[in-house]
Design goal:
It is an enzyme of class 2 (transferase). One of its GO terms (biological process) is glycogen biosynthetic process. GO terms for molecular function: alpha-1,4-glucan glucosyltransferase (ADP-glucose donor) activity; alpha-1,4-glucan glucosyltransferase (UDP-glucose donor) activity. Pathway: Glycan biosynthesis; glycogen biosynthesis. Keywords: Glycogen biosynthesis, Glycosyltransferase, Transferase. By secondary structure, the chain is an alpha/beta fold. The protein has two domains: 5-258 and 471-486, 3-Layer(aba) Sandwich (Rossmann fold), CATH 3.40.50.2000; 280-467, 3-Layer(aba) Sandwich (Rossmann fold). The protein is 37% helix and 20% strand. The chain has helices spanning 21-35, 93-96, 113-130, 142-145, 147-155, 185-188, 208-215, 224-229, 240-245, 280-292, 316-320, 323-329, 342-348, 351-354, 367-376, 392-398, 409-414, 435-451, 453-465, 470-490; strands at 5-9, 39-45, 58-68, 71-82, 85-91, 137-141, 166-171, 179-180, 201-202, 205-207, 218-221, 250-252, 303-310, 333-340, 359-363, 379-382, 402-406, 428-430. It has a nine-stranded mixed sheet with strand order 3-4-5-2-1-6-7-11-12, sandwiched between helices. A six-stranded parallel sheet has the order 15-14-13-16-17-18, with helices on both faces. A hairpin with a 2-residue loop joins strand 4 and strand 5 (85-91). The chain is globular, with a radius of gyration of 23 Å. The two termini are 23 Å apart. Bound molecules: adenosine-5'-diphosphate (ADP) and alpha-D-glucopyranose. Adenosine-5'-diphosphate (ADP) binds next to helix 1, strand 13, strand 14 and helix 15. Adenosine-5'-diphosphate is lined by residues 20-22, 24, 307-309, 337-339, 365-367, 370, 389-392.
Length: 492
Amino acid sequence: MTRLKIALIASECYPFVKVGGLADVVGGLAKALHQAGHEVVVIVPRYAAIDGLRFKLQPFLSPLGVWMGNSQEWCAVQHADYDGLPVYFIEHDHYFGRPGLYHDPEFYDYQDNVRRFGFFSRAALQLCRDMGFSPDIVHAHDWQTALAPAYLKIWHWDDAYLGNAASILTIHNLAHQGRYHADDYDYLGLQWGNFTSDKFEEFGGINMLKGGIYYADLVTTVSPTYARETRTPMGSNGFAPYLARRGEDYLGIVNGVDYTQWNPALDPHLPHHFGPRRMAGKGRVKAALQKRMQLEVTRDMPLIGVVSRFVDQKGLDLLAGSIEAIVSDMRVQFALLGAGEKGLEWYFGPLPGRYPGRIGSYIGYNEALAHWIVAGADFFLMPSHFEPCGLNQIYALKYGTLPIVRATGGLDDTVQQYDEATGDGTGFKFWQATQRAVYDVVGWAVSTYYDRPQHMRKLISRAMAQDFSWATQAEAYLHVYQRALSNKRSLG
Ligand code: ADP
Ligand code: GLC
């Protein structure tokens, strides 16, 4: 195997800064590639939200000059070590010294996001040059860094340091494309000749992701089913033609999991531990979770967990429309954790007051509680309208917490349907995006819990045996990297 030099350029990376699954993927993939012997660097913005003391950030380089439009802009670079993996942080106070990553506390997008992330993408490439790191692969993620492949092709094609790099763009969510006003196009320095409807232009504005899809040597997304869905007009947010144009150079790879972070036998967040052959600990975590969330502490009532960003994608409207009927008609408990849209927060927040002992909810972001719920619940519900991959259901499998999911995107790829005749499968799937379908599938899971305990045991043991470790998934990325390199070579 040739040792590759890989630059991962992203807007989030666990453990330094995380909003959602993107951070877990960037951190996990980088670590796995590093452990497989490749030379990997990760480059992220130096947000105010990153705890410099905790992560021992050190000054690395100052100043770093970055050409934007036709003038040079200056920033600095910090460095941290993540188990031997170098992580670099682009420091630019005006752009990143704010409370949020992408939006203000009221959830309004920062209006200069196109400048912030355009600058960041260009700065990340400049950093590679200035520190003499000549990558074989530049791997960008989502709209935030989608301009990196474009800068490589437009500005660095004959560069001594960057000219040989092949670029990969991974799409984690097509609902977010980075659409901004054309007034900022000059600043990006992408040349007006490229402001066309197949590259950056859309309805007179800029679409960052679209440009990335055009310029990357290879485009991936985070599950094969989402890759298929997004080739159709229904699932593509308008991108089907651009993705279809990439032919076989657009494909899906299911996300991996960092089982040092998500493992019931080792999980540092948990009060008790367990594994496939010693399940008593799971019952203890369930009791501790029931207590913590003010639920009735009982062994024999099924507990359904939900951990989610409260955004349209996640289908919590379907749960909001069915949860009261569910707890009225079935002997079941819910433990809910999430934050986001105010309407959902206002609904789920006070719900425990109306169903004491049966519904527990916590509005906010709480990493430890997320682990408790994934570990202590019997089922884990994700009724997503769409889900590019989804990580929580994969974590849940390892903890013997059976996923109940809508069969879309990565949820469909990672959960095997329960077969009532044989007891095979790893979870419960439903198809229709309706409140009724959520009610019915929960009813199916709950009746399995009460009426077919032998099947529950089979499902749980098969779920816990599933392996989505990054070591395996990183292999799939390495194949893609090789293909991207040969794509690039064949195009000269
Ligand atoms: P997405 O990235 O679309 O939010 P994923 O399932 O890929 O969906 O990843 C979500 C990640 O964010 C998981 O690691 C999950 O545990 C975490 N998460 C989401 N909401 C919260 C929350 N309120 N508190 C703690 N962790 C959360
Ligand atoms: C996005 C998607 C989610 C996916 C995550 C990591 O946030 O919504 O489905 O798991 O990215 O790829």
